[in-house]
Amino acid sequence: MKNMPERRSASSNVAASGAPRLSDVAYERILESLFERRVPVGAFISQNELCAIVDVPVAPLRDALRVLETEGILTIHPRSGIQFIRPGLELTRSTYQFRSIVERAAVRVFAEEGDENVTNALEVRHSRLLRRVERDGIGPDQIQEMDALEMELHGQIIQALRNPLIESAYRRMHNYLRLLRLERKVTPPIMTRTLKEHLDILEACGTRNPDAAEKALYAHFQAAMQRNLGLV
């Protein structure tokens, strides 16, 4: 996802040369309001309330809402309000099905052609974080680094396909993944298992073994889906 633009008034966004469109600003701010929990998951909210939260005018807000509705993030109820999605079994299943279809193909390419320096650097960072979690438990720094490693590892895997259409679809899918994680409790054992699963993928990629990489990735997704459903 793109970085959040600096929070400014609507008029300054319009006036600034080369500034993003207000509808794009509204799109990003609506998502961030969800991810930062300023708008609760599953909330039913009025358009005026949402305008106040994201600080953009009504017209670009409506444009952004229409896009988010097509992406399945919310439902617009005319003359009533906006209903945000509440993650559940179906969204979890669909998200991980999409990830499995795309990334199992991508990780084979990454294992065969990926930059060795990238793989090694990711393996070092994962191992370092694993030792910190096992020694000190979980704090804000560990959670932030885990989120960064999630995005970087899976982002590198997707980029191996060199397909802009897949990359664009994957970025939208990542919004669903972030929503799923909002209601997931992260504990040291859960983070430890996730890191070890990532290391299994990286080890297979480091030895240029696409079969082992695909197998490790599939096992990771199966375990991650169960964690998001609260089954483990």
Mean pLDDT, to the nearest integer, reads 89
**Proportion of residues in helical segments:** over 70%
Order of helices and strands: HHEHHEEHHHHHH
Give the quaternary arrangement of the chains: single chain
Quickly count the helices.
Answer: 10
Distance between the termini: 29 Å
Share of residues in strands: under 5%
Please list the strands of the largest sheet in the order they lie side by side.
Answer: 1-3-2
Descriptive report:
The structure is a single chain. This protein has 232 residues and is mainly alpha-helical. The protein is built from ten helices and three strands; from the N terminus they run ααβααββαααααα. Strands 1-3-2 form a three-stranded antiparallel β-sheet. Strand 2 and strand 3 form a beta hairpin. The protein is globular.
The gist of it:
With 232 residues, this protein is mainly alpha-helical. The protein is built from 10 helices and 3 strands.
Describe the SSE topology:
Blueprint: H1 10-15, H2 22-35, E1 44-45, H3 47-54, H4 58-70, E2 74-77, E3 81-84, H5 89-113, H6 116-136, H7 140-159, H8 164-182, H9 188-206, H10 210-228
Antiparallel strand pairs: 1-3, 2-3
Helix pairs in contact: 2-4, 5-7, 5-8, 5-9, 5-10, 6-7, 6-9, 9-10
Q: What are the key terms here?
A:
single chain; 232 residues; mainly alpha; 3-stranded antiparallel beta sheet; 71% helix; globular
